[in-house]
Fold this protein.
Amino acid sequence: MSKSIGNVVDPNGLIDEFGADAIRYFLLREINLGSDGNFSRDALINRINADLANDLGNLLYRTVSMVEKYHDGELKNCPAVALDVDTDLVKLTEATLVSYQEHMDKLEINDAIKAVWSLVASANKYIDDTAPWKLAKEPADADRLHLVLYNLAEVLRYVAVMIEPFIPGTTPEILKQLGLECKEQNLLEDLTWGGIADGTKVVKGEPLYPRIDVLPDGRTLIGATKKYAGKVYNPETGKHEEYHPEPVKAANNKKEKKNDAKKIDALAEAQAKAEEAKAKALAAKEAAAKKATSAADAASDAVAAAGDAAKAVGGAVLAAVASARARVSAAADDAVRTATEVKNAALEAARGGDAAKSAPAADGEITIDDFAKVDLRVAKILSAERVPKTDKLMKIQVQLGEEERTIVSGIAQYYTPEELVGRNVIVIKNLKPTKLRGIMSYGMLLAASDGEGNLVLADAPNIKSGSKVK
């Protein structure tokens, strides 16, 4: 920043728009004490969404929501049923407190924050590993469910005290939602595991840090959900005001639904034409085979072998992209072209030509070059919600390295949104974007299905988001 150039950022404006705690966290997290650092509005928004909204905010929201849903908001410790995954979390929490104190004593604030957020990430993974929603279905696991939710609340209590020097306005809100008293001074010496009394009632509140989106005109949209339009910051008044989307949106949705219906009809028509073209091509091949010499017969066999290979490869591709039904249109066009090529090859064979002599072997294999075209990446699921008026589609927000994407996937019959958030999954990054139910989808999740109603997502636990799958 330079006063002479005039690119100074007004901290008061940032505080009005994003809040003091968010600004304090970003500066302390991104810049080492005593050193220069980089600042940008995009980096600030990305850090708030990733660390404060998705990691810490989601951990608190998921924990309190499950305690309310399964135990009427009441916490209870059942250490007698602890497994290794539970004791590992306890040990990690206590070790984090020690590491945090050491970094703070050396004024290594940036490293102290990283240690706390590593614990937050482990707690989110603990939810995926223990799957409380599955424990809730088994009466025999009642005590295990109590213990898992109690452990999550204890981790949040530790985190609330450790982050108080950095984001002091956030600590009281976390303790309040955990049903705990916020003292005038919360001391690290008071942190011992098991400090939450049995019978403590949680109190679900507003999200700690609502998600921030940037509108096309550059304004920040805060806290938008499918039921609430959110608020936008008005720099002229210095206040957040209710956001009112353009009323034409409803009309656009109707058009999109109508267009979707037309696309489905066109899809069916394209498939029918492809089948008809294929049948004609096969008939032409048979007629040519009767009139051709033995050389033409051999060429015809090669063409048939090529067709079998194409079917095998096509079947493998369709199995991999079963959830991407909107791309069938392109596949139908490919089928038409393939059928035409088969027909032309057969006719050429009948004339004694050389076109069919170079047909590939029917081994059902693809080359390494074909596979290299598919860009497989590890992505972390940040949020998930069912697409209204559909039984199969789920709208999923994922983090791909520094990038966030929306993917629409047909897994709503197999997973709940709570089961998906926080998971590391494998996605096809370079799949052509398409619109499903009016929602643009940028990629596809990989999953395995046995054809008997079972489907499991391919995942990559403990692998950094954005990592390439080889």
In short: The chain has a mean pLDDT of 80. The chain is about 50% helix and 10% strand. The two ends are 42 Å apart (CA to CA). Residues 11-209 form a domain with the Isoleucyl-tRNA Synthetase; Domain 1 fold (CATH 1.10.730.10).
